[in-house]
Amino acid sequence: MAFDRVLADEAAAPARGHRTMDICRGVGRLLNAHGIASITEVTLANGRRADVVGVGTSGEIWIVEVKSCALDFKSDQKWFDYRPFCDRFYFAVAPDFPTALLPADVGHIVADRFGGDIMRDAAEVCLPGARRKAMMLKLFRSAAFRLQSTLDPAAT
């Protein structure tokens, strides 16, 4: 029986990948509407990869962890490692996600490919200045290298 569940989960993996991309797109649209510039898949100093990182006009840094389904959430508890790198931490999920699974002490976004809504604001925890500077540098360099690779794919 458990083996059947593993096979079903593996068969659903491509659909989860598309769903994750759709949620990321909606999160990007939501953040943009709030004046927050965002970039996806950013490797943090601790080696973890954040799904979406956004920077507001005041320099506030948000990390949004995308969960495509309950299994994705239950099998990945690395999100604790993201919190020291942001002022606000959110989970972004699809509209049909069982939100009772989400921790009460983090932000909650519901998104699809067309946009999203903040259902619960994240508590603000102010980053230390040195960590903020390091994150800003990391985000700028990541975005600049990605932009350059679209202008000159042969250079990468």
How does this structure look, described?
The radius of gyration is 16 Å and the shape is globular. The protein has helices at 2-33, 70-75, 129-151, and strands at residues 37-43, 49-55, 61-67, 88-93, 107-112, 115-120. It contains three helices and six strands, in the order αβββαβββα. Mean pLDDT is 90; it is low at 1-13. It has one domain (2-155). It is of the alpha/beta class and 156 residues long. Strands 1-2-3-4-5-6 form a six-stranded mixed β-sheet. The chain is 39% helix and 25% strand. The longest helix is centred in the N-terminal third of the chain and has 32 residues, at 2-33.
* CA-based shape: globular
List low-confidence stretches: 1-13
Number of helices: 3
- The average pLDDT value, as a whole number, equals 90
Number of domains: 1
Strand content: 25-35%
Side-by-side strand order of the widest sheet: 1-2-3-4-5-6
Q: Into which percent range does the helicity of residues fall?
A: 25-40%
How widely separated are the two ends? 46 Å
Secondary-structure content class: alpha/beta
Could you spell the SSE succession in H and E letters? Answer: HEEEHEEEH
Number of strands: 6
Q: How would a crystallographer describe the biggest sheet?
A: 6 strands, mixed
